[in-house]
Design a protein that fits this description.
Elements (H helix, E strand, L loop, with lengths): L1 H22 L5 E4 L2 E5 L3 E8 L6 E9 L5 E3 L8 E3 L7 E5 L3 E12 L5 E10 L5 E13 L10 E10 L18
Length: about 180
């Protein structure tokens, strides 16, 4: 019985270690916040971060697939909703109203290296009238260094957007009406 408990504990710890290490690989990309909770009708932003480890990032393709019934790029900000982050660059943005935002970046010198580069900020508008959630399907393709060497493996990540409709009288937007809303 003790051996079985030890084996289960060992397998669980290996699973956790695998997840932690998988996020720290060159070529990994993620969004901040990973889960956004936004009010219907509001503008909000997501940041795209990447790990290039010891390589400079000089070029990339980023495709973001979203549910256009729930959110859309806020094209009144940046270049069609996209702004270069503190460590990033943007060359071209294609707002495809079928629910795909395509972003390309190229910089001959490159940026980085680093394990947490803020590449982009993407601005959105939540415009549905119903509560709900959706997944942002993000594809990071062909990250290259200045010598055209691929950084890590191209990968795909997801982020989740949760929309809510605030209740009339819910001033602090905690989804309850109470004395604190007075």
């Amino acid at each position: 019985m003790k051996n079985l408990i030890f084996l289960v504990a060992l397998l669980l710890s290996m699973t956790v270690l695998t997840l932690v290490f998988a996020q720290d690989s060159p070529g990994d990309v993620w969004i901040i916040p990973a889960l956004s909770r936004v009010r219907v009708g509001s503008w909000f932003a997501t940041e795209v971060h990447a790990n290039t480890e010891k390589q400079m990032l000089a070029a990339y393709k980023l495709y973001i697939i979203y549910d256009k019934r729930i959110i859309s790029p806020n094209t009144s900000v940046g270049t069609d909703s996209v702004e270069a982050g503190a460590d990033g660059f943007v060359t071209a943005v294609n707002v495809n109203y079928s629910g795909t935002l395509k972003i390309n970046g190229f910089d001959a010198v490159g940026t980085g290296p680093g394990e947490n580069l803020h590449l982009l900020t993407i601005n959105w508008i939540a415009h549905t009238e119903d509560q709900g959630s959706m997944i942002l399907d993000i594809h990071f393709w062909q990250p290259k260094d200045p010598n055209s060497i691929t950084i890590g493996l191209p990968n795909r990540i997801d982020g989740e957007i949760e929309l809510y409709v605030s209740v009339l009288g819910d001033v602090n937007e905690d989804e309850r009406i109470g004395i604190v809303d007075a």
